Amino acid sequence: MKKRKVSIFMKLFFTYLISSFAAFILFSFIFYLLFNNNLKQSFLNSMETQQEQVVQILELAYQEENKEAIISTLSIINDQEHRSIFIYDKNGQLLYRFSTLQEPIHIEEEMIYKALQGASVKEFIKDKANPLFIMASPIEANEFDFDEKVVVIALHNYFGVVNGIKGLFLLAGAITIVVTTTFLYTLSKKITAPLREMNHVAMEYAKGDFTNKVKIKSNDEIGQLGKTFNYMANELSSLDLMRKEFVANVSHDMRSPLTSINGFVGALLDGTIPKNQQKRYLYLMKDETERLIKLVNDLLDIARIEAGQVSIQPINYNLSEQIRKLIAKMEPELIKQNIDIEFQGNLDEDIEVFADQNRMDQVFGNLLQNAVNFSPEKGLVTIIINELDHNVMVFIKDQGPGIKKEELKYIWDRFFKVDKARSKKVGTGIGLSIVKHIIDLHQAKIDVKSEVGVGTTFRVTLPRFSLKKNEI
Ligand SMILES: Nc1ncnc2c1ncn2[C@@H]1O[C@H](COP(=O)(O)OP(=O)(O)OP(=O)(O)O)[C@@H](O)[C@H]1O
Ligand SMILES: [Mg+2]
Predict the structure, then answer these.
(1) Topology of 8-163 in CATH?
(2) Atom of ligand 1 nearest to the CA of 374
(3) Is residue 471 scored above 50 in pLDDT?
(4) Does the C-beta of 375 come closer than 6 Å to ligand 1?
(5) Is the CB of 301 under 6 A from ligand 1?
(6) In a 10 Å sphere around its CB, with 0-12 CB exposed, 13-18 middle and 19+ buried, how is residue 128 labelled?
(7) Is the CB of residue 105 less than 8 Å from the CB of residue 132?
(8) What is the whole-number distance in angstroms between the Cα of residue 446 and the centre of ligand 2?
(9) DSSP string, 225-238
(10) Is the CB of 418 under 6 A from ligand 1?
């Protein structure tokens, strides 16, 4: 079944809305309970005051000896109010009745009886249409001995007051709901806007367009996410660029030897190359194939190293012998290019290091090859081995063109070549990248010093012969 897509905006908006409504309903409920109690209490209290008022009117009438005044005053003051007043004599007979209600109010005889006994009785009669607050209380005899013995007050405007407040409450609620909903809608939109923007930008990244960036407007988690997002885009963009460069570099470096080989084979086949020259061309083709093999091997190597598939197996081995063998291997090339190699120190003395011998072959081979490749005619390459307490330092120094300071930091990047046009013949620019990876795997150190026009010196620092390893 297809899941319905609910946007984060909707989720946020409805969560806010439901929480606000729940809070509002809870507030209304508690408010209603408290208000109701309070209102009932104030109705009950007001009946006492009203009873006192009636007694005062009676007193006044007695003072003036004008009983008519009781009726006229009470009917005037009662007309405005939602209440009824009943006055009884000592036998419980109704003397006066003042009421704004059409229908009669039933007052229990027991209440009158209790009031005649001297008790004040209050009652709340729950009636769906018209709930009543009734109070029957005795009229205390003072200087006048009233005929009127009991006054009953009935208040019947409870619903009127409740409804009035209810109306106000509903109006306030409606205004609150409209304002809150608008506010929450705007807030949710504002909070989710960067997410929508990120989504939009991510879609463009997916299509390979890395030009758009997320605009960071806040420093909160979403702002941080935006920053991370932009950082990711930069990384992706440079990765994409690297991938394109990689393909371009590899294709270019493969094309030149392949084109040469293809040309030579064609020339050999159609007889353009005379028989006595054929061997020379076959050697040239061999050189080109070797270049291709080196390139492919280097590519495979770097791919495996970068994928973390290469581990090193360090052992204690003879470094002096390793350097001796490497120099011997390069002898033909050195003679061909008229380059001299000088070794400062005693090559016959055995100096042991703790490293992966095959991988270090690759490191020193690459460094020596670079020194030779970049050396001028009759140049001198110097190798120095320095033994320290815990380390051995190997210096490989040449009299080549040197590397500019601003370019030095890039030489470890794959495919980096200082002068792409001039050194095209020499290599692909992977050598030093492999060297750096191998040194890092050893947790060893490599650094370089170079001066333009003077030469370059690479220094490799390896741990010395390890007793620990031998004990194992
Ligand atoms: N001894 C050096 N003297 C001057 N420049 C150097 C020296 N060693 C390296 N470089 C510069 O650093 C770049 C990278 O060297 P790296 O060994 O990685 O590649 P490469 O020698 O060009 O090709 P590869 O080693 O893959 O066959 C070189 O192209 C060169 O510009
Ligand atoms: Mg190289």
Answers:
(1) Beta-Lactamase (3.30.450)
(2) 3
(3) no
(4) no
(5) no
(6) exposed
(7) yes
(8) 15
(9) HHHHHHHHHHHHHH
(10) yes
